[in-house]
Amino acid sequence: MNFIGQHILSVDQFDRASIEEVFRVADNMIPYALRQRVTRVLEGAILGNMFFEPSTRTRVSFGCAWNLLGGEVRETTGIKASALAKGESFYDTARVLSGYSDLIVMRHEKMGSVAEFAAASRVPVINGGDGANEHPSQALLDLYTISRELTDQGKAIDGMRIALVGDLRFGRAVHSLCKLLGIYRNISFSLISPEALRLPSSYIESLRSAGHTVVESSDMASGLQQADIVYVTRTQEERFESADEAQRYKGLLRLNQAVYTQYCEPNTVIMHPLPRDTRAEANELDNDLNDNPNLAIFRQTDNGVLIRMALFALILNVADQIDATSRPVNWYTAKRF
Ligand code: NCD
Fold this sequence. Notes:
By secondary structure, this protein is of the alpha/beta class. The protein has twelve helices and eleven strands.
């Protein structure tokens, strides 16, 4: 895949070689994310960070990733604060904003909205999440995390066992991750969800036809056994017809230390795209796992910066200029990792 000037709208654009290229550039970003070195390779460049749906880590980490490369960020948050609320089309918004930015990241609740926006944009656009459809940068950072965690245990993505838990119907992070994992070989998928929130059949069919094993269940007891990775998700309440309907599914599937001890392997890696819903009725990933060394959720969020820096560097064709323009930092830096 030639990244230069490209939109990143779906993980369908990636093959194994291009994933490895993103990961190689992401590895190279570690000294910058750790604040050991500074680079100004995007000095003068502007990111349009357009989030028309709630976001904390995706929006802020895209912004930080751009800043860490030396660029400036302009952002808008929420529909109400933008002219979309006055009836402006994606076409007009994209024409306008692409005149102000070198690259745009966009999130919107409508499936396909980011592709529609990108078609009218004069600069590259990255999909920061379009409704229940896709979330490519999240899937890349999840896969990067899986790869690093498994490598630490002497394992590989090919042949691994992953349990995906929760709202697999509306969870776009899961949708994109399943497509990316489908590129690898001989993975065993255990899909654990309430009956009504199963992974859409098109994803399951693609995985099976690529030679992977897929087993569906609605309880943790059988589904979690022997998993290398357990990936828990939140009930996507904003995608349901009503709050009452979403409420029915909250709290049905919960991972806590007791469940982990009973059904997981001693080193099963625990992941979640976050935010975890910590309200009592939901609590799908309990705080009592916070000191479990296999809890990788904050390694995921840290890795998100590396992956987003890598995407920017590849799209804007500066990946091989980073080190040449860098210097050590000159301020006190806390140890983060
Ligand atoms: C996810 C999303 O927005 O799809 N969050 C994120 O970007 N890390 C998952 C979620 O909201 O549950």
